[in-house]
From TrEMBL:
Phylogenetic lineage: Bacteria, Pseudomonadati, Bacteroidota, Flavobacteriia, Flavobacteriales
Record carries keyword Transmembrane: yes
Transmembrane regions listed in the UniProt entry: 48-73, 79-100, 112-129, 135-152, 157-175, 181-198, 210-234, 254-271, 280-300, 306-324
Keyword entries, A-Z: Membrane, Transmembrane, Transmembrane helix
Keyword Coiled coil recorded: no
Highest taxon in the source lineage: Bacteria
Species, as recorded: Flavobacterium nitrogenifigens
Protein name, as recorded: DUF2157 domain-containing protein
């Protein structure tokens, strides 16, 4: 199903590990350059700004092709309008396929055609179904998942996650007020189930090509789980979807649960992140704590904003200062010292990379000596009894 050369994908992984080893000081710059020279990889772009530039260039190329096609279809305006976005989507798929065969991967040009094809599918289905949101979300999710599986496009996985969540929401909306009322709990259960499913898939993953996309989906589930029952989100959506008006002295149903959820979930994220040394969950816990504080202050302002910001800054400074002071001398576990290796699995290929770069990428070749040694005994140097 993957369109790219798997050998070059493996080489990309090894080159990334070599870069991590170089940054950690385990291999020299010459070894790193030798590894990059000997391992051919796909055409990718790691510089974000350059990749955005290529994306804009690819978008211009994509729109130019679609505009040229439109010149031939303007004569039959009504019929062409019904099918033109399907044609544009086909152009996106064809462009993505062509660029992938030319070994473009996460380059910017391929991003334009892949994301363009997904968006055109959504517009085409919207026109055909007259804006039926559930069907639109379903086909967008399907197209995005196909793009991720075939082209290993991580941004497509993000689109897939958003589209699947939208599909769930629209399905619940169709159940009426009952569906809207239980939507937070359904979203919470859905996010939790998907989190453990993606975590299990990552644990049993045999092909590393899908790791980044699955990690993104796993992180998305964590964020969705928190926001699904955050008090501010639930209260504001209740007003928008159900027309619920919270009068002074009253509150939304199950308010105590949503208060507890808003406070406890970020703490659970933080504790679990420190326990498992999960950096993404750690950052998400910080963001969730910040949003929880914003949620409380949004409805209950105890102090003026400037005083609250000052006190909060002092508290954060104190926590950071004493944490650094306590952890700066630790050599293992939770420590303030910088990582020599960014990824915990970088040592898996360290020996192979160092051996390969030292012995010219061919460590299995045995050197045949032109000199022939004689017999000799067990303690001799190879000399026989004859001259």
């Amino acid at each position: 199903m993957i369109v790219h050369d798997k050998k070059k994908l493996d080489n990309e992984f090894l080159v990334d590990q070599a870069d991590s080893l170089y940054n950690g000081g385990f291999i020299s710059k010459e070894q790193k350059k030798f590894i990059e020279k000997e391992l051919p990889v796909l055409r990718s772009q790691s510089n974000v700004l350059v990749r955005i530039g290529f994306f804009l260039l690819g978008s211009l190329l994509y729109s130019s092709i679609c505009g040229m096609i439109s010149l031939f279809g303007l004569s039959s305006e009504h019929i062409y309008f019904q099918i033109c976005f399907y044609i544009f989507a086909a152009v996106g798929f064809a462009g993505a396929e062509l660029l992938s065969h030319q070994e473009y991967h996460n380059h910017g040009l391929d991003d334009a055609f892949i994301l363009g094809a997904i968006s055109q599918i959504g517009i085409a289905i919207a026109i055909t179904t007259e804006g039926y949101e559930t069907v639109i979300a379903f086909f967008v999710a399907f197209a995005a998942f196909f793009m991720f599986i075939r082209y290993l496009h991580v941004l497509s996985m993000l689109v897939f996650c958003i589209a699947v969540t939208a599909f769930l929401f629209f399905e619940m909306f169709e159940l009426g007020d009952i569906g809207k009322a239980i939507l937070p709990f359904i979203a919470m259960i859905f996010a939790g189930a998907c989190y453990f499913i993606t975590k299990k898939i990552i644990k049993n993953l045999t092909e590393s090509y899908y790791y980044n996309g699955l990690l993104l989906a796993n992180s998305f589930c964590l964020a969705l789980f928190y926001f699904s029952c955050n008090y501010l989100v639930v209260r504001e959506l209740s007003g928008e979807l159900l027309g619920t008006e919270v009068k002074p002295g009253t509150d939304i149903p199950f308010a105590f649960f949503f208060y507890a959820f808003t406070v406890l979930v970020p703490i659970i994220y933080l504790v679990q992140a420190l326990k498992t040394k999960d950096r993404i969950m750690l950052w998400l816990s910080f963001l969730a704590i910040g949003f929880s504080i914003f949620t409380i202050r949004f409805y209950y302002s105890v102090l003026p904003a400037e005083v609250a910001l000052t006190v909060g800054g002092l508290v954060l400074f104190a926590i950071a200062y004493f944490s650094i002071k306590k952890l700066k001398e630790k050599e293992s576990g939770l420590t303030f010292k910088p990582d020599r290796i960014n990824h915990s699995d970088s040592f898996l290929n360290a020996e192979a990379l160092i051996v390969a770069s030292t012995f010219g990428m061919k460590p299995e070749v045995k050197t045949v000596s032109p000199m022939e040694f004689g017999g000799g005994g067990f303690s001799g140097g190879g000399s026989g009894e004859s001259f």
